[in-house]
Amino acid sequence: MAEQQGTERLSTAKTTPLGGRAFRRDSIATGVVGRLPSFEPLKTCPLCAESSFATAGFCANCGASLFQVAPSLPEPARPDHIALPEYLNRARKPRRRAEERGTGGGLVITGMMSLGVAVLMNGDGAFRLGAWLLGLLLAALGFWQMRRDSRTMHRTGAFVSTGSLMALAMVAIQLFGLPDFDFLPGDSPPGPPSPQSPMWNEVSSTPASRAVVRSAGDAPMFRGDARHSGRQPGPEPVGNPTLAWRVDTNGEVYSSPAVVDGVLYIGTKDGFLYAIEAGSGEVRWQADIGEYIVRASPAVVDGTVYIPSGFFLYALDAENGAERWRLPIRFAGQSSPAIAEETVVFASQEGELYAVDANSGEELWDFAPDGLILSSPAIANGTVFIATAHEESAVIALDLRSGRSLWRFEPIGEVVSSPAVAGELVFIASTDGFTYALNTEDGEPRWRYGVGGSGSPAVVDGTVYVGGSDGGLYALTAATGAIQWLFATGSQIGSSPAIAGDTVFLGSGRTLYAVDTATGQRRWHFAAGDDIESSPAIVNGKVYFGSRDGFIYALAGDGISSGTPVATADTT
Distance between CA atoms of 191 and 206, rounded to whole angstroms? Predict the structure, then answer.
């Protein structure tokens, strides 16, 4: 019997109502679709619906008569006959909806590509932010669509992991200062900077000729003079640049150097003011002026060094660093002092402008405009020009003697750059994407050009030089604002341009560039160990600047011309 039924098994736990042996036939499918026999004719009890053999006369379960019941073949089991548990039915519907919506893998890949663009590019900050936000949004939407599709999640996991490792590598480059490969098209990859092998680029190769020696001068304050014109005494280095010396300060350098009587003065991160022999790089003295970072640049006039730091303005003896006097102020930031008519004018970061007697340290007047002050004041023809950086940012002109406000101009964006004055115009760059030329008498705008940034403009010989937030160095005609040329640096510009002779010097990223003022062509470049936010000073054939790598650099020329003189522009 067991061989005939195959998948059946007998149960003798009960007897029939007539006293005979009762058996039940359970198929393998009993637990899933109920008790179903093999595919042979069966009789179904009309009382209990139990299935019995076609030859049975009575129901094996309840004993009812089956003589009048005709046998029939059972219907084969189908999936829709299977009674699934309710929790499985609930799980099938969301999975079907997720598969109908799509996997989302394409969105994740597109988002990761957008994030990669934001990490790798060195362009406009607003564009990078937009690419970053778009990438995050697309990646989030993609993962949301894939959240119930395990197969797609597994396939995408390898790509996402690889992209994450690449992003971490880019962050490591930014944090730990790995080499910067920002050379321009046509350049050969530069080697590491060293005193014997500086980074430079020739304009063209011609037979060597000896340089002309020029007289020395001084750069006594930020941007060269009280007007902040950016003009340096020079002369600039001639020929191939060489590293004359460098001094390690054990911390980032944000301050710009002042050079007077053969001595360089500069502030450092650890709260010291250094005096260094400009020719040899030997430290003459260093003065402890507090525990705060010295971001401002010193001004040196009549044997006294003036430097704001922390909550004081210090006056030090230029010869030995001894303190002559100090003036309590609100917290000093990056605003550097300008000196004219024996008056020191500077600003605190919290928004207060001071005028102090240069000899006694007595406060003459103060002025508190609305907003923070991150720029340095400029002085020209008895007028002080200052800019504020806040929601109500403005360029303000005040009388040097009394501190009385003369006029006020409000650009659209914040102003963190310092004014530069030349002739009847004052020039200012704003974060609203414009450089303005204002009349010094009444503040009326003469023109504006669509480039702005945090660097201060330089104005020399009728040309305005602006380092834009897009990484470009622009040369504009001072009278009209017409563009003359554009030099692309490829990196964020952190310093302000300085001009000596026919060369404009500018720090961008980790690189110091020397650019021809007439053509906008690069003459050479030199790579420091980290970003350059210090504006260069050019005195007696050397370029001096600081870097966030903690070094103060002095670059000189080898005295040999490396190219044919560049033809000057026709001014007729």
Answer: 23
Contact 417, 428 (CB under 8 A): yes
DSSP for 160-207 reads HHHHHHHHHHHHHHHHHTPPP--PPTTPPPPPPP-SSS-----S----
Going edge to edge, which strands form the sheet with 378-380?
378-380, 383-387, 395-399, 405-409
DSSP one-letter string for 100-149: HH---HHHHHHHHHHHHHHHH--S-HHHHHHHHHHHHHHHHHHHHHHTT-
How many domains in the chain? Answer: 3
Residue 572 within any structural domain of the chain: no
> Confidence class of residue 195 from pLDDT cuts 50, 70 and 90?
very low
- Residue 294 in 3-state DSSP? coil
Among residues 233, 254, 351, 261, which one has the least CA distance to residue 307?
254
314-366 pLDDT per residue, tens: 999 999 999 999 999 988 888 999 999 999 999 998 889 999 999 999 999 99
Query: The pTM is what?
Result: 0.62
**CB–CB of 306/314 below 8 Å?**
yes
The verdict on 147 and 239 lying in the same domain is no
* Cβ-proximal residues to 1 (8 Å cutoff; 6+ apart), any chain: 10
Rounded distance, CA 439 to CA 51, Å? 108
Tokens 């014997």, residue? 196
Dihedral sign from CA coordinates of 440, 441, 444, 446:
negative
Same domain, 36 and 71: yes
- 8-state DSSP, 223: G
406 shares a domain with 328 = yes
Residues 71 and 121: beta-carbon distance below 8 Å = no
